[in-house]
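SEQUENCE-TO-STRUCTURE ENTRY
===========================
What this section holds: a protein sequence and its matching fold, both as plain text.
Tokens: labelled as protein backbone structure tokens, with as many entries as the chain has residues.
Question of interest: how does this chain fold, as expressed in backbone structure tokens?
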Amino acid sequence: YSIMLTGFIYPVIAHWAWSGDAWLGQGGYHDFAGSGVVHLTGGVSALVGAMMLGPRIGRFDHRDSSISGHSVPLAGLGGFILLFGFLAFNGGSQGAISNPGDGVVVAKAVVNTIISGCSGGITVLIIYRLAGESKWSFLMTLNGALAGMVSICAGCDTVRPWGALITGTTAGFVYFG
């Protein structure tokens, strides 16, 4: 499955979107840092993999259907690594910073990524408390921030900062939903 995805499926999709003669690009498709190419491809492949594997029979047959047994510090460390990685990935998607105007594009991509991630995290934090939870949730907030950063990848080089705020807030609502 992994060999098929990385060897055959992803290169074709990346070529469709990012090559000089890409048919998606000729139609007006713009994906600066991979919302469609990377995240949509990964999400669809995860869905297909889950459908191929099927449900974990016997795992959740008991009355308590909560999922337990994860490490908050390790989840936090992984989340922070992803948050910083998004800054490098989205900013680095410009490919260069030595030509005139490159620095502006990189700076705009990083600022929009931060704004979208923060607004996604804050949105989830507030909704989680308003939904009746008595405690703040670091993990929910962290996942909301990651959702905000994922959602801004395609247009982080062109969206204005207020648009990044709306994008992240919307991503927070979608994640919580």
